[in-house]
Amino acid sequence: MNATLKSEKPITGIVICDHGSRRTQSNDNLKLVAERFASRFQGDCEIVEPAHMELAMPDISAAYAACCERGATHIVVLPLFLAKGKHWTRDIPSLTGQAAARFPGTTYQVAEPLGIDDLLLDLLKKRFDADDQPTLTSGEIDPRLKDIPATEKRVQCSTCPFQFDRETGSVSIKPGSGLDTMAAQGE
Which domain holds residue 57? Predict the structure, then answer.
């Protein structure tokens, strides 16, 4: 009689990953998402850690390590991103691969971003129905900006490959952004 060895299912750790922010309040929201996810799906997901791709800690490497320290041998990274942009196609897989290299014998996956899902559409409708934000008239200052000095109010993200000319109101591609080369080549 041959004894068949039963293969053990790996212990899975979940890393919920966002971009990361310089604002503590934004980063704290991810911790809350991870805690609520762990609580809501506790029967399926015992090990859940938050991670920021950049700008804040814990980063992907620290979250991967925390999962392994808690016994995980298989890590699933759940990007809290909408689309398959460069962070999903390049940055998160690269950072996760680097983290995994420190833990031989582990396996990992990077899940699809949120994408366009009916649940997301339902959430947008919920926000619309809430109507809980101020209605402003043209030229009125948004109350969210009242304590921010004029020098810190930004028109665009500093990492954006585009630049905005305040005088003309035109948008162009920043030199050296990589998009300028593609535009010149007609890509």
Answer: 12-110
